[in-house]
Write a structure and sequence with these properties.
about 260 residues, mainly alpha, 3-stranded antiparallel sheet, 5 strands, about 5% strand, globular, disordered C terminus
Length: about 260
Protein backbone atom coordinates (compact mmCIF):
# COMPACT_ATOMS: atom_id res chain seq x y z
CA UNK A 1 0.00 0.00 0.00
CA UNK A 2 1.32 3.41 -0.93
CA UNK A 3 1.75 6.00 1.77
CA UNK A 4 0.23 9.44 1.42
CA UNK A 5 3.70 10.89 0.70
CA UNK A 6 4.27 8.34 -2.07
CA UNK A 7 0.94 9.26 -3.61
CA UNK A 8 1.72 12.97 -3.46
CA UNK A 9 5.15 12.40 -4.99
CA UNK A 10 3.45 11.18 -8.16
CA UNK A 11 2.08 14.66 -8.74
CA UNK A 12 3.93 16.51 -11.48
CA UNK A 13 4.82 19.56 -9.38
CA UNK A 14 5.57 17.75 -6.12
CA UNK A 15 9.37 17.67 -6.36
CA UNK A 16 9.78 21.15 -7.92
CA UNK A 17 7.72 22.64 -5.09
CA UNK A 18 9.51 20.69 -2.34
CA UNK A 19 12.95 21.45 -3.79
CA UNK A 20 12.05 25.14 -4.10
CA UNK A 21 10.92 25.22 -0.45
CA UNK A 22 14.22 23.72 0.74
CA UNK A 23 16.13 26.11 -1.51
CA UNK A 24 14.33 29.07 0.05
CA UNK A 25 15.01 27.65 3.52
CA UNK A 26 18.73 27.46 2.74
CA UNK A 27 18.79 31.22 2.16
CA UNK A 28 17.09 32.18 5.41
CA UNK A 29 19.16 34.91 7.08
CA UNK A 30 21.36 33.96 9.98
CA UNK A 31 20.56 35.23 13.45
CA UNK A 32 23.69 36.80 14.95
CA UNK A 33 24.48 38.75 18.09
CA UNK A 34 26.65 41.15 16.10
CA UNK A 35 25.53 42.38 12.67
CA UNK A 36 27.16 41.08 9.50
CA UNK A 37 27.07 42.06 5.84
CA UNK A 38 25.07 39.70 3.58
CA UNK A 39 28.14 39.09 1.42
CA UNK A 40 29.86 37.63 4.49
CA UNK A 41 27.17 35.03 5.11
CA UNK A 42 29.40 32.11 4.11
CA UNK A 43 32.17 33.37 6.36
CA UNK A 44 29.78 33.56 9.32
CA UNK A 45 28.66 29.98 8.66
CA UNK A 46 32.29 28.81 8.52
CA UNK A 47 33.01 30.59 11.81
CA UNK A 48 29.97 28.90 13.34
CA UNK A 49 30.89 25.41 12.11
CA UNK A 50 34.36 25.75 13.61
CA UNK A 51 32.92 26.08 17.12
CA UNK A 52 29.41 24.58 17.08
CA UNK A 53 30.26 20.92 17.66
CA UNK A 54 33.25 21.41 19.98
CA UNK A 55 31.25 20.88 23.20
CA UNK A 56 29.95 17.58 21.82
CA UNK A 57 33.10 16.09 20.28
CA UNK A 58 33.25 13.33 22.88
CA UNK A 59 30.07 11.82 21.44
CA UNK A 60 31.67 11.15 18.04
CA UNK A 61 32.53 7.58 19.00
CA UNK A 62 28.88 6.84 19.83
CA UNK A 63 27.68 7.72 16.32
CA UNK A 64 30.49 5.73 14.69
CA UNK A 65 29.78 2.69 16.83
CA UNK A 66 26.02 2.85 16.32
CA UNK A 67 26.46 3.12 12.56
CA UNK A 68 28.90 0.20 12.42
CA UNK A 69 26.45 -1.98 14.35
CA UNK A 70 23.55 -0.90 12.14
CA UNK A 71 25.47 -1.46 8.90
CA UNK A 72 26.70 -4.85 10.08
CA UNK A 73 23.14 -5.87 10.89
CA UNK A 74 21.92 -4.77 7.45
CA UNK A 75 24.68 -6.57 5.56
CA UNK A 76 24.57 -9.79 7.57
CA UNK A 77 20.81 -10.12 7.99
CA UNK A 78 19.03 -10.44 4.66
CA UNK A 79 15.75 -9.83 6.49
CA UNK A 80 16.88 -6.59 8.11
CA UNK A 81 14.04 -4.07 8.00
CA UNK A 82 14.36 -0.51 6.81
CA UNK A 83 12.49 0.93 9.80
CA UNK A 84 15.45 1.02 12.26
CA UNK A 85 17.69 2.67 9.66
CA UNK A 86 15.09 5.27 8.69
CA UNK A 87 14.30 6.20 12.30
CA UNK A 88 17.99 6.30 13.22
CA UNK A 89 18.66 8.63 10.29
CA UNK A 90 15.79 10.86 11.31
CA UNK A 91 16.93 11.13 14.91
CA UNK A 92 20.50 11.81 13.80
CA UNK A 93 19.40 14.59 11.43
CA UNK A 94 17.48 16.28 14.26
CA UNK A 95 20.53 16.00 16.53
CA UNK A 96 22.61 17.60 13.78
CA UNK A 97 20.06 20.41 13.47
CA UNK A 98 20.26 21.13 17.20
CA UNK A 99 24.05 20.81 17.49
CA UNK A 100 25.36 22.28 14.25
CA UNK A 101 23.05 25.29 14.07
CA UNK A 102 24.02 27.04 17.31
CA UNK A 103 27.33 28.44 18.50
CA UNK A 104 29.24 31.37 19.92
CA UNK A 105 31.81 32.81 17.52
CA UNK A 106 34.58 35.27 18.22
CA UNK A 107 33.62 37.75 15.50
CA UNK A 108 29.82 37.55 15.47
CA UNK A 109 28.89 36.45 18.98
CA UNK A 110 26.01 34.00 19.29
CA UNK A 111 24.96 32.66 15.89
CA UNK A 112 21.95 30.61 14.78
CA UNK A 113 22.05 29.00 11.36
CA UNK A 114 18.33 29.23 10.71
CA UNK A 115 18.43 27.54 7.31
CA UNK A 116 20.31 24.51 8.57
CA UNK A 117 18.16 24.30 11.69
CA UNK A 118 14.96 24.23 9.63
CA UNK A 119 16.21 21.99 6.81
CA UNK A 120 17.83 19.30 8.95
CA UNK A 121 14.90 19.24 11.37
CA UNK A 122 12.50 18.73 8.48
CA UNK A 123 14.68 15.95 7.08
CA UNK A 124 14.73 14.33 10.49
CA UNK A 125 10.96 14.47 10.82
CA UNK A 126 10.60 13.14 7.26
CA UNK A 127 12.76 10.07 7.93
CA UNK A 128 11.20 9.34 11.32
CA UNK A 129 7.81 9.52 9.66
CA UNK A 130 9.09 7.24 6.86
CA UNK A 131 10.20 4.73 9.47
CA UNK A 132 7.05 4.87 11.56
CA UNK A 133 4.66 4.56 8.61
CA UNK A 134 6.78 2.22 6.47
CA UNK A 135 10.10 0.44 6.34
CA UNK A 136 8.47 -2.89 7.21
CA UNK A 137 10.11 -4.73 4.31
CA UNK A 138 13.70 -6.04 4.15
CA UNK A 139 16.26 -3.57 2.82
CA UNK A 140 17.95 -6.29 0.76
CA UNK A 141 21.26 -4.44 0.61
CA UNK A 142 23.19 -5.64 -2.42
CA UNK A 143 26.61 -4.11 -3.02
CA UNK A 144 27.38 -4.85 -6.65
CA UNK A 145 30.73 -4.32 -8.29
CA UNK A 146 29.54 -1.15 -9.98
CA UNK A 147 28.62 0.29 -6.58
CA UNK A 148 32.01 -0.29 -4.97
CA UNK A 149 33.65 2.73 -6.59
CA UNK A 150 31.42 4.94 -4.43
CA UNK A 151 32.24 3.11 -1.20
CA UNK A 152 35.54 5.00 -0.58
CA UNK A 153 33.57 8.25 -0.63
CA UNK A 154 31.29 7.04 2.16
CA UNK A 155 34.31 5.83 4.14
CA UNK A 156 36.01 9.21 3.66
CA UNK A 157 33.03 11.02 5.17
CA UNK A 158 32.82 8.49 8.00
CA UNK A 159 36.54 9.10 8.66
CA UNK A 160 36.58 12.92 8.23
CA UNK A 161 40.40 12.95 8.18
CA UNK A 162 41.35 16.53 8.94
CA UNK A 163 42.58 18.87 11.64
CA UNK A 164 42.60 22.65 11.96
CA UNK A 165 45.79 24.50 12.83
CA UNK A 166 45.80 28.30 12.95
CA UNK A 167 42.55 28.33 10.91
CA UNK A 168 44.13 26.16 8.21
CA UNK A 169 42.44 22.85 7.37
CA UNK A 170 45.04 20.10 7.03
CA UNK A 171 44.80 16.36 6.25
CA UNK A 172 44.99 14.07 9.26
CA UNK A 173 44.86 10.37 8.39
CA UNK A 174 44.98 9.19 11.97
CA UNK A 175 43.07 5.85 11.88
CA UNK A 176 41.64 6.61 15.33
CA UNK A 177 39.40 9.17 13.65
CA UNK A 178 37.54 6.27 12.03
CA UNK A 179 35.92 5.83 15.43
CA UNK A 180 36.23 9.23 17.07
CA UNK A 181 35.85 11.97 14.45
CA UNK A 182 33.14 14.31 15.81
CA UNK A 183 32.15 15.48 12.34
CA UNK A 184 30.45 12.21 11.53
CA UNK A 185 27.15 12.15 13.36
CA UNK A 186 27.25 15.81 14.35
CA UNK A 187 27.50 17.58 10.97
CA UNK A 188 25.26 17.17 7.95
CA UNK A 189 27.97 17.29 5.29
CA UNK A 190 29.90 14.35 6.76
CA UNK A 191 26.93 12.29 7.92
CA UNK A 192 24.61 12.53 4.92
CA UNK A 193 27.03 10.83 2.46
CA UNK A 194 27.13 7.69 4.61
CA UNK A 195 23.34 7.59 4.91
CA UNK A 196 22.90 8.24 1.20
CA UNK A 197 25.28 5.40 0.35
CA UNK A 198 23.35 2.99 2.58
CA UNK A 199 20.15 4.02 0.83
CA UNK A 200 21.93 3.81 -2.52
CA UNK A 201 22.87 0.15 -2.11
CA UNK A 202 19.41 -0.66 -0.71
CA UNK A 203 17.50 0.97 -3.56
CA UNK A 204 14.62 0.59 -4.33
CA UNK A 205 13.75 -0.82 -0.88
CA UNK A 206 13.77 2.69 0.54
CA UNK A 207 11.35 5.58 0.88
CA UNK A 208 11.89 7.15 -2.55
CA UNK A 209 10.47 10.65 -1.83
CA UNK A 210 12.52 11.00 1.38
CA UNK A 211 15.56 9.64 -0.49
CA UNK A 212 15.25 12.18 -3.29
CA UNK A 213 14.65 15.09 -0.92
CA UNK A 214 17.70 14.12 1.16
CA UNK A 215 19.85 13.80 -1.96
CA UNK A 216 18.69 17.21 -3.20
CA UNK A 217 19.66 18.83 0.08
CA UNK A 218 22.99 17.04 0.00
CA UNK A 219 23.71 18.32 -3.49
CA UNK A 220 22.66 21.83 -2.55
CA UNK A 221 24.93 22.03 0.50
CA UNK A 222 27.78 20.41 -1.43
CA UNK A 223 27.53 23.16 -4.03
CA UNK A 224 27.47 25.82 -1.32
CA UNK A 225 30.69 24.39 0.09
CA UNK A 226 32.50 24.59 -3.23
CA UNK A 227 33.60 27.99 -1.89
CA UNK A 228 36.22 26.13 0.17
CA UNK A 229 38.13 25.38 -3.02
CA UNK A 230 38.83 29.08 -3.61
CA UNK A 231 40.57 29.50 -0.25
CA UNK A 232 43.99 27.81 0.07
CA UNK A 233 43.47 27.51 3.83
CA UNK A 234 40.28 25.46 3.46
CA UNK A 235 40.90 23.61 0.18
CA UNK A 236 41.20 20.26 1.93
CA UNK A 237 37.76 20.85 3.43
CA UNK A 238 36.50 21.42 -0.10
CA UNK A 239 37.96 18.05 -1.10
CA UNK A 240 36.23 16.39 1.85
CA UNK A 241 32.90 17.65 0.52
CA UNK A 242 33.30 15.68 -2.72
CA UNK A 243 31.56 12.61 -1.20
CA UNK A 244 28.46 14.69 -0.52
CA UNK A 245 28.56 16.13 -4.04
CA UNK A 246 29.12 12.84 -5.87
CA UNK A 247 26.86 10.60 -3.77
CA UNK A 248 23.99 13.10 -3.77
CA UNK A 249 24.22 13.40 -7.56
CA UNK A 250 24.32 9.62 -7.98
CA UNK A 251 21.32 9.24 -5.65
CA UNK A 252 19.27 11.78 -7.59
CA UNK A 253 20.05 9.97 -10.84
CA UNK A 254 19.27 6.60 -9.31
CA UNK A 255 15.98 7.73 -7.80
CA UNK A 256 14.92 9.15 -11.15
CA UNK A 257 16.18 6.37 -13.41
CA UNK A 258 16.52 3.13 -11.51
CA UNK A 259 17.98 1.40 -14.56
CA UNK A 260 21.14 3.52 -14.27
CA UNK A 261 22.17 2.25 -10.84
CA UNK A 262 20.15 -0.93 -10.19
Amino acid sequence: MKTRLAELSQKKLFYPIIFFIFLVISFLPLITQKPYSPENTQQVIIELLMVAIKPYEVFGILFHTATIILVGWILVNSKALGRPLFIYMGVNFIIIALVQSFGTTELYGNVIHTGGLAAFTLLGILWIWAGVTGGTGPLSANIQRRHLFLLPLAVLSFWAPYQVEANVVLPDFNPVLLLTSPDYGLTFCFTAPVFIYLLFISFPKVNIPAYRITAFNGLMYALFNLAHWFNPDTRWMGFLHLPLLVLSTAALIQSRRSNVFP
